[in-house]
Design brief:
This protein is of the alpha/beta class. It is built from eleven helices and twelve strands. The chain has helices at 5-21, 34-44, 55-58, 67-70, 111-120, 138-141, 144-151, 159-171, 244-256, 280-288, 301-323; strands spanning 75-78, 81-83, 92-96, 99-103, 128-132, 154-158, 188-190, 195-198, 201-207, 216-224, 227-234, 262-264. The chain has a seven-stranded mixed β-sheet.
Length: 326
């Protein structure tokens, strides 16, 4: 295989991360997992991040239009949490004692990939009972209709974002190269403070606008070989408009949810305020060579607190700039 500059950069960056983490990234240390096999296949084809681009960022950057690169395998992150989306936008599967909860669906041409990843993770897509929409942007809800058709799942969103989705279907696609996908009707409207329960799993819903008017977030519990950790999914971790709603949402999180241990990201890489210590796939790579007794790389309250402080400072600056017309 020809060693391209991008490939060398990718390998050197990986070794640097390993050194910082005190981990051995040699072939002997890597696990034979689907994620490692996929990464090796991409490297062999020269599909690697651009210089100075992290693995997670590459899915929203240099490799945004590479369908093969985007179609990574399902990743088991916790006993009851799997990543089943393509690379650029997250889709999370939460298995419960009475069926499956799917958080976001991606959009075409990746919806069948999400469905296949659910199967690859060891589950039947027909067992999906709820599809939660993190916010009313097409890349998050575009596959909901197709997945609902095969599963009969309830589609869940807040009122404000139901209105966004309905407007999209009424007006047609804003980008003709990004079809809306199979249409679906308004279904379950959730509200702030509500608890959504399926079997042994409960999600406490929060209405935290700013990215969209109806961005939901929820608290739930994940398990690492039976050990419980507090997890939080923030449906809209970046400001839009004046930024005032987003700043208010951050103030609520900082006051009430600063002890969260596991941040469950809506995108593999957060473009507005990148997540410290690596985002989804850096941590997934570390998870693939985790030894017995090692800490779980997704359990990281320190990174969560740092991110909250950075996002808060950034939101204050954004609101001030908007007020000055910048």
């Amino acid at each position: 295989m020809r060693l391209t500059p991008r490939f060398v950069t990718f390998v050197v960056a990986g070794l640097a991360v390993a050194a910082l983490l005190g981990a051995d990234l040699s072939a002997q240390a890597l696990r034979e997992t689907p994620f490692d096999t996929y990464l090796q296949k991409m490297r062999e084809q020269g599909l690697v991040p651009e210089r100075n681009e992290t693995l997670s960022r590459s899915y929203r950057g240099s490799m945004r239009d590479s369908e093969e690169y985007q179609k990574l395998p399902a990743i088991k992150v916790f006993d009851n949490l799997y990543y089943v989306g393509p690379g650029y936008v997250s889709a999370w599967l939460i298995p419960t004692s009475e069926g499956l909860i799917l958080v976001d669906t991606a959009q075409e041409p990746y919806v069948d990939h999400v469905i296949e990843n659910v199967r690859q993770a060891g589950f039947d897509p027909q067992d999906i009972k709820y599809i939660i929409i993190s916010h009313g942007h097409l890349d998050h809800y575009g596959g909901a209709g197709k997945i609902q058709e095969i599963s009969g799942a309830r589609i869940v969103a807040l009122e404000e974002d139901w209105q966004m989705i309905e407007a999209d279907y009424a007006e047609g696609p804003r980008n003709p190269n990004r079809p809306l996908g199979m249409a679906f009707e308004r279904d379950l409207v959730i509200q702030d403070g509500q608890t959504l329960t399926l079997g042994d799993t409960s999600l406490k819903i929060h209405h935290l606008p700013g990215h969209t008017a109806g961005s939901p977030a929820f608290e739930f519990t994940v398990y690492d070989d039976g050990t419980a950790h507090d997890a939080f999914f923030f449906g809209g971790p970046g400001q839009r408009g004046t930024g005032e709603d987003f700043l208010e949402s951050l103030n609520f999180i900082r006051a009430n949810l600063s002890d969260i241990e596991v941040a469950v990201h809506v995108h593999s890489w957060l473009s507005t305020f990148p997540y410290p210590g690596g985002s989804v796939f850096e941590r997934a790579l570390r998870l693939s060579y985790r030894e017995t007794g090692d800490p779980h790389p997704f359990v990281d309250n320190v990174a969560w607190r740092i991110w909250l402080d950075r996002a808060h400072a950034g939101a204050i600056a954004y609101v001030a700039a908007q007020a000055q017309g910048q």
